[in-house]
Amino acid sequence: MDLLVNILIFVVSLAALLKASDFFVEAAERIGLSIGISPFIIGVTIVAFGTSLPELATSMAAVFAGSSEIVIGNVIGSNITNILLVLGLTAIVAKKIVMDFDIMDIEMPLLLASAFFLYFVLADNQVTVMESILFLVALVVFLLNSFGQRVDDVEKPKFQIKDLIILLISGVVVYFGAYYTIFAIERISLQLGVNRDFIALSVLALGTSLPEVVVSIAAARKGKPGIAVGNVLGSNIFNTYAVVGIPSLIGDLVIPESTNDFSLPFMMAITIMFAVGCISKKLSRWEGVMLVIFYVYFIFTLSKDMF
Predict the structure, then answer these.
(1) Is the Cα torsion angle 231, 241, 67, 60 positive or negative in sign?
(2) How confident is residue 211, by pLDDT bands cut at 50, 70 and 90?
(3) Residue closest to 30 by CA, chosen among 149, 162, 128
(4) Measuring CA to CA, which residue among 126, 121, 154, 160 is closest to residue 138?
(5) What angle in degrees, to the nearest 10, is found between the helix axes of 48-64 and 69-81?
(6) Is 175 in contact with 57 (CB distance < 8 Å)?
(7) Contacts of 28 (CB under 8 A, 6+ apart)
(8) Domain annotation for the chain: domains and CATH numbers
């Protein structure tokens, strides 16, 4: 009975976290437009950050709860899920992803840089304060690049106080949703004897990546599958720099020993594979199927060390 209650808490709190994140992003978009921020800048910053907000919230809650080993698994698992499952499903739904912009010029090198940075930082199984600061500096560089690419002349909608209220309330719900998500994970893992690292890399990573899944598939159905690529790029960079950098300044991160054995090298491999696949500026449906097959393999391999 206790297990069912904890599973219910996990499902409800994660659903509240995802829905509150959605309201937070929408309110932030409207406030951004009202003060003159261009839609392009909002897309590559606020939306990318918003879809990574569940990862950041759950990771900070994990540090406060003394379960910091969940953080790295959440980041690596989410990055893998974004590339394999989000892009894979989008390519399958859209039949083909065509990029009408050159991401190999700046965006893809920045994504690869973030992946390699994370790989070398975790090589000694710790994240120091200096490395955390460097992560945040790198995040600022990414934001400055995004803000400097294009400025649009837009008509400013009228600022509404309700948007600010929605922003504040949804922020509070995000916090409590993250707190009870971690609360439930701790108890479920104890009751089932399941490795927390497995839960972080699979169940939690999939759950917190749902915003990317929804945004990308919705874009594909609207005939704009290329948005999925930008969404994955921005979200993965935010995951690496913000979701590792910020929680590691709050408390010491525990790095699971298995991280450098499989999950981190696997993330590196599929990130490079993603970059190679984008050289042609398109991803076919069959490439999407292969991405999903790789994701199934990833989950299957993790399940071997589930207990």
Answers:
(1) negative
(2) confident
(3) 162
(4) 121
(5) 160
(6) yes
(7) 42, 46, 50, 167
(8) 2-150+160-303 (1.20.1420.30)
> How far is it, in rounded angstroms, from Cα 78 to Cα 48?
13
Backbone phi, psi, residue 6, to 5°: -70, -35
Indicate the SS3 state at residue 228: helix
Supply the pTM of this predicted model.
Answer: 0.80
pLDDT digits (tens, 9 = 90+) for 87-125: 898 889 888 887 766 677 777 899 999 999 999 999 999
State the pLDDT at residue 194. 79
Note whether 239 and 72 are within 8 A (CB).
Answer: no
Q: Where are the alpha helices (DSSP H) in 65-106?
A: 69-81, 87-94
Six token digits for residue 147:
């803000």
Structure tokens at 306: 């589930």
283: three-class secondary structure by DSSP: strand
Residues 178 and 13: their CA atoms lie apart, in Å, by 7
- DSSP letter for 43, please: I
**Residue 139 near residue 238 (C-beta atoms within 8 A):** yes
Q: Assess contact for 81 and 211: CB atoms under 8 A.
A: no
Query: Where does the chain show beta strands of DSSP type E?
Result: 96-98, 282-284
Q: Residue 19 to residues 94, 95, 124, 282: CA-CA distances in angstroms?
A: 25, 28, 37, 31
